[in-house]
Prior knowledge:
Blueprint: E1 5-13, H1 19-27, E2 45-50, E3 54-60, H2 70-81, E4 88-93, H3 101-110, E5 117-121, H4 131-140, E6 147-150, H5 159-169, H6 187-202, E7 212-220, E8 226-235, H7 238-245, H8 250-267, E9 270-279, H9 287-294
Parallel strand pairs: 1-3, 1-4, 4-5, 5-6, 8-9
Antiparallel strand pairs: 2-3, 7-8
Helix pairs in contact: 6-8
Bound molecules: guanosine-5'-triphosphate and magnesium ion.
Amino acid sequence: MTGFKSGFVGVLGQANVGKSSFINAILGKKILIVSSKPQSTRNRIKCICNFEDAQMIFVDTPGLHKPQNRLSKYLSSQAYAALEGLDALVYMVEPWSAVSAGDRDALRHLKKFEQPIILLINKIDTIRDDSVQRTMEAYRVLELFQDIWPISCKLGIQMGQALEAIKNVLPEGPRYFTDESSTDRPEEFVIAEFIREKIYELTRAEIPYSCAVDVFEVREREDKRLIEIFANIYVARDSQKGILVGNGGKMIRQIGQRARREIELLLGAHVFLDLQVKVSKDWNEDERLIKKMIGQER
Ligand SMILES: Nc1nc2c(ncn2[C@@H]2O[C@H](COP(=O)(O)OP(=O)(O)OP(=O)(O)O)[C@@H](O)[C@H]2O)c(=O)[nH]1
Ligand SMILES: [Mg+2]
C-alpha cells in the first residue's frame, strides 16, 4: 500500500521517567511492567502497534542510570545497544526545568545517532508552574530534536499528538509483523515480567534488584479450564530468600496472588501459579549469570 509508514522506534531516557508506561498507553493494554522504583525494565522489548496507515514497533529499553553493580552496568549497556537499527527515537524526560547531568551525558551519546529524535516531556500532570515551558526551552536550544511534546501518560494528555509526531518522521515501509501479537517476546517472558512487577511493588531495598524470574512451564489442563504456570524466582543470597518467602510464606503468597490476577487478565483464563524461591549465589554480580538469567536479547 503506498503511503503506509512503518519503523522501529526506540524509547530511551533516564530510569523511571515513564518509558514503559508510554508504550503501554499507546498499545492500549499492559504488556510492559511499570514501577515507582527505578530500573524496572531489564530488556529491550519490541511492542507492535498497528494502525490503518502505519505500523510502529516501539522498543522499550532499560532506563539510563549511573551503574552501581554488574547488573545495572549491563542494563545501561543494553539501552545504548538498542539504538542500532532504529528508524526513529523517542527521548523521554520529566519536566525538571533544565537538562539534568544524566541527560546531558546520554545526549552526548546521541550526537552520533542519525535518525530523527522526538523529545517527550512526560508527567506534566505533576506540574503547576512554568517548568514545562522551561524544560521545553532548555531542550530546544540543543537543536537535537525534530519535535518536542509535553505529555502525561497517566492522564492521557497529548498522547495523540505525540504519536502523530512520531508517525510523521517514519519512512514508508512494510508491515513487519503480521500476526496479532503485541510483542516479539514469548508469553513466558511477559508472565515472568508480571511476577517481577509484583516483587517490585511489595518488597524494598535491594530485594527487587536481586530477583530474576524464570517461568519454566505453562500448561493448559485438558480436564479443567485452567492454565498451570510454574516459575522459579532466583535471589542472590540466602537472607533474601527468607525475606521473599516471608513469615509463614506470607510474602510469596501475596506476590503470587497479585501476579495471578494480572496474568489471568492477560491470558483471559483461570490460572494456577506455582512460585518457588531459589538462591543463585551473587548472580547479579556475575556477568555470565546475568546473561543467562535475563539476557535473552534478540
Ligand atoms: N504522575 C505521573 N506518573 C507517571 C506518568 N507516567 C508514568 N508515571 C509513573 O512513573 C513511574 C515509572 O514509570 P515506568 O513506566 O516504569 O518508567 P520507566 O521509564 O519505564 O522506568 P525504568 O524501566 O525503570 O527505566 C511509575 O510509578 C508510573 O506510574 C505520568 O504521566 N504522570
Ligand atoms: Mg521501564
